[in-house]
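Today's session is about reading a structure prediction critically. Students often jump straight to the picture, but the first step is always the sequence itself: look for stretches that repeat, for charged clusters, for runs of hydrophobic residues. Only then move on to the predicted structure, which in these notes is written as discrete structure tokens rather than atom positions. Here is the chain we will use throughout the hour.
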Amino acid sequence: MLWAAAGVITLGFLVALQITAHHLGIPGPITTQAREVIHAPKSGFLLYASLALTMVVLTWRQRLIALGTATGIDLVFLLVRWATGAHPTEGHPFGNGALWVILGVGVFALTRRTGPERVLMLKGVGLGLLLVTGRKTGDTWLLITSQTRPAVLDPYVAMADHALGNPSWLAGRLLRASGPVGEHALDYVYAQLAVAAVCVALYQLRDVAAEQRFPRHHLVRTFLLIGLLGPAIYMIYPVVGPIFAYGPDGGHWAAANLWPNTLPPITTPYAMPFDEITPRNCMPSLHTAWATTIFIHSRKGPRALRLAGTFWLIATLAATLGFGWHYGVDLVAGVVFAYTVEAALRTYDRGWDRAGVRLIAYGTAVFAVLLASYRFVPMEMAAYPWLSGPLLLLAMASVVHGYLRTTRLWVAKATPAPQPGPRPELAV
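Below is the predicted structure for this chain, in token form.
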């Protein structure tokens, strides 16, 4: 019933978002996803990652058939596009086959399977489609923010960022000094974040086919919930980022062309008008939140997975700052947001454990205080960075510490106490 309720809620949300997008004259998530059945997809890597999630419910023989079929369909599409001269101008020339196979597994489950096996297959299809749909939903949300929020709050965030020493300006100069190699590497890491998440999720879901059930909690749940809740905060706190508000990408809408060479001066902030194209997707940094979630879930994996999770978090933070897409305070808010959402899901699984509820309330309060301080006391934060900067980092660290302490308490309670074994009697 939980899966059915989640499916109905998700469908209703997608329909509402599609209607809203239609009224605004922008493509909605349903139409953009339907186009990728035939047209070149925006991300072929994401579609194959979604297929990998779907295949966790299949046997190894079925996985090989599914992968071979997806590759074959993509080769047919490639040959047809080459013969007709319809080369895609954007996106990837592959990925349609993966989407076709995901849909095909769903049809196969409905027509050829019954009972628990059908349910398990449909859960796998739903998981794969949710990852793709989540990406399309996020794209639509970004377009909605740009058209419904004409003013942005970047001057406030830029002033608050003085508390951390304006790290985006420093990271931007360092990234430019690294040359094209560093830029291309970080750009790839940033763009393929969902693929990295799938790699961790595949490790967590590796026993689904054998056990015929999904684990109670895994990375995909947190990943999708962050993507669902985050854009709502974009609507409340619209920010475009330093490369747009203070850099060359903002054009004549920018407050000044300062990024990354000249720090913004400490002046009274104001809500500045901006174009109807640039997404207001900075506060909080969802890429930071997602990378933090990958880091959290990779901790219980083998050493190689733990190292990969650490690398992806560090590289994502470097990319968000170095490319000028985020301020430092965005990242602080993103970390707090990620740990709070993760705590909420794990507390829900435990029947709203009292310690978990306290952690959720504390994380939510810290997150709200962070956003309020960026908005209402940015000048004080800029004037006293030696005080406000450590306080920001301390607030973030306190949420992380609270999460670690609470989860360790849960593990300690779940671990049964060792029972004394039989003791040999002494011979008399």
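Discussion point for the tutorial: The chain has a mean pLDDT of 89.
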